[in-house]
Amino acid sequence: MNDETYYSVLGVSEDASQDEIKKAYRKLAKENHPDKGGDEEVFKKISTAYDTIGDENKRKQYDLERKNPFARMGGGGFNQSFQDIYNSMFGGHRQEPRVHTTNITVEIGVLDSYLSPKKTITYKRKTSCDTCSGTGGDKKTCMTCQGSGQIIRQMGSGMFIQMVATTCPTCSGHGDINTNPCFVCHGSGAKDEMKNIEIRIPHGIDDGQFFKLQGMGDYRNGIFGDLLVRIKIQKQDNFEKLGNHLIYNVYFDLDDLKKDSFEIPHPDGNLTVKFPNQFDTSKPLRVKGKGFKMETIGDMMVNQYVKYYRD
Q1: One-letter-per-residue 3-state SS of 236-273
Q2: Which of 107, 131, 190, 253 is deepest in the core (most CB within 10 A)?
């Protein structure tokens, strides 16, 4: 392992004064100057060392980075920028961006959740611009982040130095800059379109739940993202949903109460339910196994209401 430092190159101690560093440099530069038969590579090394620790501010930064163990990666003790460290860790290439998502809300009825039908939905999304083929126009690599889309910031001092990767402010994380934006999409690489897709509603899906459709979201950074569909369930034909249970609200008049039974239009087919001996509207009737068929099978709960007009 190469433990050579700028101090050892100039032959001075790490606590040497600036005057001592200057004297050591002048002596070595004179002895190793190429015009006097010295080695050119040695002379360059001496000059590089003095350029750093011969300047008080650069010397402080160099000492800080040397004390940070991360600053030694691939450098043998010589000054290495945090951006160089980042490039050495990640190959100097821009990391693949995470797939972005587009969120939409779709309203369905309770019976749709039970019957799991196919449903065509229409929504607006971003698609690739035809004029520039989704590139956004002519671009050049961002010189601030060297195309990585991120810059490394140093936080703390001494032995407690932390390197934090942040989005490059120059290119906003894209890694490149538009030099000649597309006149149609103004450099975004995308345009609006109305998209129709057919989906099958999952049986038993609940209010507020999501399901994902890959590649059906907005076009951004050269790829179509995923579409997250949020379900909003509405009451439907007197039916409601409570977990795995199917709730039905039935309304009786006085003539209905004189009968022995009543019918419920269950989505699997009409059900005939007998009136109990004691009619109590404060308690729902329960029909076993007629709810949603999930990991556990729910029941159908019948809420009874009496509605009639007095003469």
Answers
A1: ECCEEEECCEEEEEEEECHHHHCCCEEEECCCCCCEEE
A2: 190
